[in-house]
Protein 1
Amino acid sequence: MESEYKDGIAWVEGAFCPISEARIPLLDWGFLRSDACQDTVSVWDGAFFRLDDHLERFERSFSRLRMICPYDRNSLRKLAIEAVRLTGFRAAYLQLIMTRGRPPIGSRDLRLANNSFFLFCVPYISIATPEQQEQGLHLIVSDIQRIPSTSVDPTIKTYHWLDFEMGLFEAYDRGGDTVILTDGKGDVTEGPGFNLFAVKEGKLLTPEAGCLDGMTRDTVFELATETNLECTLTSLSARDLCAMDELFISSTAGGLMPVAKVDGQSLGTSPIGPVTSRLRDLYWAKRRAGWHATLVDYTTTETAT
Ligand code: PLP
């Protein structure tokens, strides 16, 4: 019999349901005001990557938004594992979500809102297609400014993505695959779902500010330490990107992905440079060997509460 969760699963209002039936109430301010935050975890070869680190970042995000989650960390952990187990997915993309909920009808007082928790799990998603992983991505630098850090803290993982989405349309119109936004002063920040790394004279560089403290970015820092690669958090001028030896992006959705071109211009080491290639191979080899892994037991029949 075909599983009702073959396309994915969601946790909505205290119960699991097939992904196609998952709904957010229309009046939830998560929808009406984008008043929500999330964290996304990946599963590969039947194991979560950095699950506890993601749960910690998720708690940090919703606490900074002054939300209260109805579940403690251990219950969230169990729900995440149970969601993957129920789908049977060996490679999955799992998102934990907190929304503001809504205050009682007639009130606009944020403090009266009952915050809600949702979760969904679908088959693994990558920003780069297999061809783009081989050929490298074409990155467009947009003039659209990333929402300033002084307006919305970029280390809270939110759904404030209209700047990215308009930037993506611009990238497609200009023949690119994806986009990077600047801080309005000429330095790059991040892209839709990823952080950016550059390689110059054998050293790694990445934006210091204006971006999410990506879990994959942290993972790259660990790989750099392990391989004695110097890594500097700094400002990266958009103008200088084409002069870098290599560029790659990092995300839970795809790991480390090479950039071959910026604004139509090929990088010197296009399609994929030696440092990017080495780090990417190491990332996947270590994941396959169980690095930062939480194994999913697909045989148990225990149901999370
Ligand atoms: N920056 C933004 C805006 C993101 O949304 C994401 C992930 O979705 C990232 C960076 C990369 O973060 P991570 O490596 O934790 O997936």
Protein 2
Amino acid sequence: MQKTWWKEAVIYQIYPRSFKDSDGDGIGDLRGITEKLDYLKTLGIDVIWLSPIYQSPNDDNGYDISDYRAIMDEFGSMQDFDELLAGIHARGMKLLMDLVVNHTSDEHAWFKASRQSKDNPYRDYYIWRPQPNNWRSFFFGSAWEFDEQTEEYFLHLFTRRQPDLNWENPKVREEVYSLMRFWLDKGVDGFRMDVIPLISKPPGLPDADNSDFQKVVDEVYANGPRVHEFLKEMNQEVSSRYDIMTVGEGIGISPEQGNLYVGENRQELNMIFHFGHMFIDHGPGGKFDIFPFSWNKVKEIFGHWHQALGEAGWVNIYLDNHDFPRMVSRFGNDGQYHRESGKLLATLILSLRGTPCIYQGSELGMTNVAFERFEDYRDIETMNIWQEYREAGKDLDALLKAVHRQGRDNVRTPMQWDGSANAGFTNGEPWIKVNPNYTHYNAEQALADEDSIFYYYQKFLQFRKVNPTLIYGDYEQIDQNDEKLYAYRRWDADGAYCIFLNCSDEVLNNVPWPKEKLNYLIGNYSAAEKGMALRPWESRVYRVE
Ligand code: ISL
């Protein structure tokens, strides 16, 4: 297996709107991030991924870009960006930008021109049809919007203000490569590519069977016939000419298809975020149609990916990001075992094979939030389904409960810096309310408490660097069927490690300890005696002697 910096790195994702406000307008900004670089260096991460910071009308918080070469006004100026990048590099860290090129904003100059007339040179930058098909948008309702000016419909797989680009048009692809070069020539270290499997649409745009949206994504929207041709072209024209990290948001990619994107011999992407475990509790009605999940299923998904990619491909490891609930609330126990499960989940993401990605605030054990009124939510996805429910006279209380569990604003409340007003995020009125638990969970307290989740991350990040078997080593599950236990072995020529995770509120007695001599290295309960039973949410890492 090829050894390289982007496999060894640990990514930290920043959602700039919610990270740190430096000028009191209630919205996080680039100078705010620069102020906090020492905090990130102290944590010990290597790469910062910034969710989009480009000019945008913010229909989808920056995932709707109106100018790829300008900084969003609320976030600051290009000079602020240059200072941020210099500050990141000065500390030996790297910067990953978000590349959102499946769609633009409807305020992008290309789209404004495209909608002018059917013979406008930009018409073919987007996907126009006299009649829509039956496709649904990710954010509810039809994926087509009628435009009165030319009396045709345009395709938008996300909000109606995010028209899909037409990648069949070579000019569109050239524009994308050119804007990538713009940022790379400034010195950025790579891209996280938003919904990249969706860029090639199926010929003729056939109707879908809308009874199961997830299936539609996997089988109709993603992995279109030209996607690999486009990605190879991008690689040849741009990525291969720089020493960068390319990360695809791998929505709709099955484990068997994974190496088509990330196989070492493919010259497409370095790695992808895969989604199986993120959709694990989504019912056929989508994310707000919640199904219980099982740890056996989580284990099966990670095992399946490992086996399918083998030595040839590489993935990211993550349990939350700006689109999914807080990991300690979803996969852990954010009440009684907040600290233990926060650390156990850190152990998991930092010891599976792949490049880990930590979402801002996970190192503080930040949790989901439960606003009592829909009016306090901001996310377009929540706004759209709220409207759909109101129009259909459906049960709004039930929806609010589902939003508490699954809504994207769970992870978008301001970063909790300290116990002062608005969690030290802003001196003004924050664009979204802070989570009221900021008085318990915040960076200031975490840094003052040597047993905090923060210091566990710090310790484990260092541990991982000096034990590269945890990066490159092979992976095999130890237990198979115990729902409460996730145990696995990582090994290579340098040695072997066993990781035991009790994913439950109960004491686990029947732990299948291996016969070999085990040397305890790191865990989430204090150094107290390590018995044969695993305590609730206990994690332990051993070296096999
Ligand atoms: O959050 C989701 C819907 O509930 C996910 O399915 C999400 O839409 C999907 O992961 C694609 O996400 C990316 O593209 C979207 C943007 O809204 C997300 O924030 C981004 O991560 C459109 O650009």
Protein 3
Amino acid sequence: MAIERTFSILKPDATRRNLTGAINARFESAGLRIVAQRRIRMTQAQAMKFYEIHKDRPFYGELVSFMTSGPVVVQVLEGENAVARNREIMGATNPQNAAPGTIRKDFAESIEANSVHGSDSLENAATEIGLFFDESDIVG
Ligand code: ATP
Ligand code: MG
């Protein structure tokens, strides 16, 4: 096991319902440390680039509008096995399939408005962190 960094987003449905602290408490109690964090309004260009991998999926346009519909909190989480650990804490993409006790089971509104994003590999984590943070923003 190794100390890793992963990229996380608290999505607009979470900031709208004032769930920033409640969700951050889940990360911290699972042993993930928030080593960088910023609240931003994602631009359309940022959201399109971030979700480029889904550009041919039918939900792409809706997803970009959702991600730009309100403030988001972009974060870097650090800890043992952080990429996989964060995916476990988040739960399945569709909250109906998410395990009890996961963030998405407890907080998500729908498959789209599912409260959080977490990188799905160490390689993607590094790329995604680089889209939103400079190395000097991250204080481990
Ligand atoms: P994320 O990348 O946000 O961490 P994920 O890796 O669990 O989520 P992906 O398959 O990468 O899921 O989908 C990215 C995001 O697109 C989902 O989190 C969700 O907001 C949205 N999404 C995925 N599938 C659908 C769908 N069928 N309908 C609407 N939105 C969807
Ligand atoms: Mg994904």
